[in-house]
Amino acid sequence: MEHERSAIIELAKNGKTQKEILKLLNIPANRRKFVYRTIRRYNETGEVCDKARSGRPPSVTTPALQKLVRERIRRNPRRSMRKMAQELKVSESSVRKIVKVNLGMRSFRRKRVHFLSEQVKVKRLQRCKGQLRRHVNHDIKKIVFSDEKIFTIEEALNPQNDRIISHKSSTIDPDPKYVPRVQ
């Protein structure tokens, strides 16, 4: 946009009419007003920058608070926006606005995926070979069943609350992004 404005001003200084500027820069007819306003603004103020806009300045979502929120997310991207709002003593909507609008981030849900480490792969292969050896002679009737269960404690995952705040899903490390589902 700034590049177009400076090109428009240069052509206007060289004596080109507004119609000629539109044709030279291949600006569509529906943006004709943009050229007229840019030239008028330059003639009135001597600059092409936007004028100061009216409106109430931010009182809560200040740059200082944005910096605080950015640092807290950088340290712990799994931090809850609700808890962050309570700690900073501001409303939840203000924190959400800072994260989404000002910082350009969003929440990503953690995913449950099947975890297969090298140890698990080796152990599975051994168990499968053992199963095949046991059933070679059709000794299926000799298998004893019990009510015991071998299990590992998995990390708890609440998909509604367990979120990671980041710019893009691809920038998140796989370690906190995925929760292993171990059998």
Automatic annotation (TrEMBL):
<dbReference type="Pfam" id="PF13565">
    <property type="entry name" value="HTH_32"/>
</dbReference>
<dbReference type="InterPro" id="IPR036388">
    <property type="entry name" value="WH-like_DNA-bd_sf"/>
</dbReference>
<dbReference type="InterPro" id="IPR009057">
    <property type="entry name" value="Homeodomain-like_sf"/>
</dbReference>
<protein>
    <submittedName>
        <fullName>Transposase</fullName>
    </submittedName>
</protein>
